[in-house]
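Researcher: Go.
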Amino acid sequence: MQMLPSAVLEDPRYRVPAAPPAGAGLAWLRSQAPRSCDGPEHLRRRATVEQVLSSAVVPNSLADPTVALLEAFGLPAGRLDDVALVAAAYQPDAPQSPGADAALERLVAAYGGRSEGTAARLCLLVQVHAAMRALIGQRRTGAAGPPVPVTRRVAPDGTTVEVDLADASFGRGPHACPGRALAEAWAEVLR
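Model: Structure:
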């Protein structure tokens, strides 16, 4: 797969890979994620994520970031295992499992059903669980580079390309990470 520089993230000809509509499981979450759409739909979903993010706070202890976010969103720490299962299978190219789909359904039920607010909370939990752990690990060891080294886009010719995030740790352009300030603050506290 071709690797391109992060500048393409600001080029509107390079679109995010769209997730097909789905009614259940991880496919539903992917289909509702801001990262899976462009244009007005992306702006609406991103605004929901930003609103949900406003209720998250930087922990003042060495609390697990996923647990802190679960509690900020009104769920108990006991849901951590479900979030871990979902996070491990969230990316379409990751190994998929019925267990991850079942975990996602338990989380959806805990939030009262499918809605944009539920999808926003779950997307944030998945990102915190995966990327924050990587970021904190890097800060603790002094490792360089972005916690998530690549992302994907669909090029104007319809091919999927990888985008190198070495110079854009939190992305750039319309899909840049909306939780950058919170992530950096958390990483400083937890390093």
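Model: The mean pLDDT is 91.
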